[in-house]
Specification:
Largest sheet: 4 strands, mixed
Helix content: 40-55%
Strand order of the largest sheet: 1-2-4-3
Radius of gyration: 15 Å
Length: 127
């Protein structure tokens, strides 16, 4: 299992403020990525999923795990970047559909979310 070591995390308020100050932005259907160059030889990731968008902690944690796993597979290509991934409100219908729709539709929407996450990393261009 992939550990998410401290050197790959945006851990402090100051780290997040650094990225929020002058970010480059990439927007996808379900996600918004803010990123900025850092002076480190590795990429760092911060994830923000608001409680009012995803109410259940189990669902928020599942989304974080998916994003972290995707980051793990791509972090070598992202050296020198601080990245914040934010969940957008468009994701909510896909998550709520798990209760209201059939299994095929749910799997299709989860696959769209995973594709959105996986397609995010190549778009991050070192400025």
């Amino acid at each position: 299992m992939f550990e998410f070591p401290r050197i790959h995390r945006l851990a402090s308020k100051r780290d997040f403020q650094f990225v929020f100050a002058k970010p480059y932005k990439i927007s996808c259907q379900y996600l918004l990525a803010l990123y900025r160059l850092n002076q480190k030889p590795h990429a760092r990731l911060g994830i923000i999923i608001r409680k009012d968008l995803v109410h259940q902690a189990v669902d928020r944690n599942r989304l974080r795990r998916v994003i972290r796993e995707s980051f793990r597979l791509n972090h070598e290509k992202l050296k020198g970047l601080d990245i914040i991934v934010l969940m957008r409100s468009q994701c909510i219908p896909a998550l709520r559909s798990t209760l209201k729709r059939n299994r095929v539709a749910v799997m299709r929407e989860k696959k769209l979310l995973r594709n959105d996450i996986d397609n995010l990393w190549p778009q991050l261009v070192v400025p």
